[in-house]
């Protein structure tokens, strides 16, 4: 009888020791778990703030880059001449406007804590640099703030070939196709804007185009042979075609600088005669 009581007492004491051990382990583990959760949440929030600031800095740098062509005394620029001071002022205003209403509890000083003193303009590139201190929001465990630096940059637009206001000759654009030996100054030129009709070969042989000229077999898709059935013609063309994909009626038009068409001559039909 005494032996059974002794075994029961030993089991009760063992159970109490296990419960006490679990309580002690919980007391050590829970604080570390809480710290880990706080740190992960803080890192995610820091990443969010970092991406927002960098996005707005890049936007501001691109906008300033569009004004970099302005010369002294140019009243059309909303910011004046782009320099280091303008970069700092414009970047600060951009950050204030875009971050207004955002939760910045981890940024020391909020929006006022984001400084752009390192921003500048050099070698035709606008640099907007922001710096701030971020501290993970935690009212229980003090976590020291970390210094964060963010940068956005964009190349300034100063005209074609890097010249102020660009080169007026390089600005002139013309239209060319893959097979023609001319360039066109008008996109609506009848050589480019074709109106293809499907007619019988007999009709094409007896018809005349918009200029009163007769149609002849296309040298590319018909050659010296003959064709029967349906063919393709255009109102301004001088040939009839057996293939709808023939280069004589199918156009692949692209726009290029006139300075790149030195090997071509101007189209007479769209008024390109010099």
Describe it for me?
With 274 residues, the protein is of the alpha/beta class. It is 33% helix and 18% strand. The chain is built from 4 helices and 11 strands. The protein has helices at 2-66, 84-99, 168-171, 201-206, and strands at 120-122, 125-134, 146-155, 173-176, 182-183, 196-200, 216-217, 230-234, 239-240, 254-257, 265-266. A 3-stranded antiparallel beta sheet has the order 1-2-3. It has a two-stranded antiparallel sheet with strand order 4-10. The chain has a two-stranded parallel ribbon with strand order 5-11. α1 packs across α2 (84-99). The longest helix has 65 residues, at 2-66. The protein is elongated. It starts with a helix and ends in an 8-residue tail after the last strand. Mean pLDDT is 78; it is low at 161-169.
Percent helix range: 25-40%
Strand content: 15-25%
Mean pLDDT: 78
- Cα-to-Cα separation, first versus last residue: 126 Å
Low-confidence stretches: 161-169
The strands making up the biggest β-sheet line up spatially as 1-2-3
Helix and strand element order: HHEEEHEEEHEEEEE
Per DSSP E runs of 2 or more residues, the count of β-strands stands at: 11
Structural class: alpha/beta
């Amino acid at each position: 009888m005494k032996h059974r009581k002794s075994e029961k007492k030993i089991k009760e004491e063992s159970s109490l020791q296990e419960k006490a051990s679990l309580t002690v382990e919980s007391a050590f583990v829970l604080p570390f778990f809480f710290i880990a959760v706080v740190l992960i949440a803080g890192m995610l929030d820091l990443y969010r703030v970092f991406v927002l600031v960098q996005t707005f800095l890049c936007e501001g740098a691109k906008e300033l880059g569009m004004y970099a062509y302005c010369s002294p005394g140019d009243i059309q620029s909303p910011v004046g001449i782009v320099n280091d001071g303008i970069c700092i002022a414009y970047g600060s205003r951009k950050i204030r406007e875009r971050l207004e209403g955002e939760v910045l509890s981890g940024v020391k000083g909020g929006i006022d804590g984001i400084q752009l003193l390192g921003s500048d303009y050099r070698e035709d590139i606008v640099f907007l640099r922001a710096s701030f201190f971020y501290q993970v929001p935690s009212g229980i465990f003090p976590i020291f703030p970390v210094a964060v630096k963010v940068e956005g940059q964009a190349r300034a637009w100063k005209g074609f070939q890097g010249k102020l206001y660009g080169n007026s000759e390089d600005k002139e654009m013309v239209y060319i196709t893959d097979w023609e030996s001319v360039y066109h100054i008008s996109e609506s030129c009848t050589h480019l804007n074709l109106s293809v009709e499907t007619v019988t070969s007999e009709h094409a042989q007896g018809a005349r185009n918009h200029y009163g000229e007769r149609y002849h077999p296309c040298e590319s898709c018909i050659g010296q042979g003959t064709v029967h059935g349906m063919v393709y013609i255009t109102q301004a063309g001088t040939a009839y075609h057996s293939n709808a994909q023939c280069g004589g009626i199918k156009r692949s038009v692209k726009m290029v600088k006139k300075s790149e068409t030195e090997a071509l001559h101007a189209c007479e039909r769209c008024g390109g005669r010099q």
